[in-house]
Amino acid sequence: MKIPLSRIAHGRSGDKGDTANIGIIAYHERHYPILLREVTAERVKMHFGPFIKGDVERYELPNLGALNFLLRAALGGGGTISLRTDAQGKTYSAGLLRMEIEVDERELGD
Amino acid sequence: MIRIANGQGFWGDWLEAPVRLIEGGPIDYLILDYLAEVTMSILQKQKQADPNLGYARDFPPLIARVARKIRERNVKVIANAGGVNPIACAREVRRLAPDVKVAVVLGDDVYARIDDMLARGLELRSMDTGEPLSSIRDRILSANAYIGAIPLAQALATGADVIISGRCADAALALAPMIHRFGWKETDWDLLASGIVAGHIVECGAQCTGGNSQVDWTTIPDLANIGYPIVEAEPDGSFAITKHPGTGGRINTHIVKEQLIYEIGDPKNYITPDCIADFTTVRLRDDGVHRVRVSGIQGRPRTDTLKLSISYADGFKATGALVYSWPQAFEKAQAADRIVRARLNQLGLRFDEIYTEYFGVNACHGPAAAPAPDPAEVQIRIGVRGHDRKAVDRFTRELIPLVLSGPPTGTGYGDGRPRVRDIVAYWPALVPREEIRTSVEVVQ
Hints:
The complex is a heterodimer of chains A (110) and B (444).
Chain A (H helix, E strand, L loop, with lengths): L1 E3 L4 E8 L2 E8 L5 H7 L2 H8 L7 E6 L4 E6 L20 H6 L2 E3 L2 H4 L2
Antiparallel strand pairs in A: 1-6, 2-3, 3-5, 4-5
Chain B lengths: L1 E5 L9 H8 L5 E4 L6 H11 L9 H15 L2 E4 L6 H11 L5 E5 L7 H6 L20 E6 L3 H8 L5 E4 L6 H11 L6 H14 L27 E4 L5 E4 L10 H8 L9 E2 L4 E3 L4 E4 L5 E4 L2 E3 L4 E21 L3 H18 L6 E7 L17 E10 L2 H7 L6 H4 L4 E2 L9 E12 L6 E5 L1
Parallel strand pairs in B: 1-2, 2-3, 3-6, 4-6
Antiparallel strand pairs in B: 1-7, 4-19, 5-14, 7-8, 8-12, 9-10, 10-13, 11-12, 14-16, 14-17, 14-18, 15-16
């Protein structure tokens, strides 16, 4: 079945220049494998479409049940150059948590 | 165990936070982070206009307000409030609070040494684009090295009540008292990394105590009186994150995780002036109410380089907004955008970028936004940037006329026409570590 990522994870996002970082954290560590399988760099890139001009890289933090994504050329130039209201990517984590993921009901265990 | 509290996540953070940390319970050190990347260029401009300015002007009055209490309670304050003029900042603190002993850390500011570095063959290439600094030499506004915790710890060793630095790594503010009090060595990589992780967790103030948290945010108690974070640091590198009793907010492992992954790159290689910290080794455990224990952190040797934060002038920009109401608010706003662009085009104006956002539709998330069918109102915000100031200025006159000459129900122009702003861009570069020599000065 399809669920929004927000059902099993929370997160926070920010900036370094024109690169946005989105941290996504499983509420329960048993759901971390779902994040690993469903929330790939490619899917994050697709989710935001032309909003993100560059590549997306993914890093794993199994100790926190978390993934960190770096989205390059993602903030309209970043910092003071950007004409975007959210030039710091503060809302990007919420934007990513809307993404629909495919899970087996038994995997959720709740 | 020592208690290190952070009362300022950026310049402009809650003014009451540092005072409440001092008055609300025991702390040994109060750290205050004032400097964002663009702050340095603003301060450099202030210093050029007046050689007695160029520092965080909120800081001296704060010290004057808490001077008696920090001396009574033996709380040491460590702040990067010095900006591009730490000495002037220290003098102003002394003028307002004559009983306070102040030490400054110098050596981060390399603005006056840029030509010398370039002449000696250091290219100072941008870490973002790879271009050499010479391409923007005549537009540089400020240049500072991120310094680490060791010079800050040396300043603490003078016995000063208040330590003022310029540009330093944010997390170094928290690490410095641990080095000073626990006698950690420059090569104790795991211990230094532990202090850096502690600093990273608290460096954005209340973001680790329930502020800006997505975890059950509606149930987080009393954000109006949120407690700012306190690190309870142990000599073995382990520590707890907590806050004063009776304050608002919440601390648990979920919330600390949110801050751990905030604004990091490769979590195995969190590079700082003092060490490389491995965030994949962090262990968190809830340890009672509003207390998270952190341990297990591993570090690796520091790199041979330090990061420079260089700012430079990069043209002009302006943004302006109008609001359109239901019905067809989005369609009206889109029509307004087409009209503005057509009029700018007819004037023959050229910009590096014209960017339009629709609030209430998709401004924050773009294509990832939730559908918003026929919203009650939509705000359109149009921005331009370019190197021709006149063109940007002409743009600022093209929005408000739409209220009479564009689609119906346009409003929200009460702030008048937009302001043209200078763009100050950021140029991160690396320098060999030995280029940066710090020193400590006690200001009498």
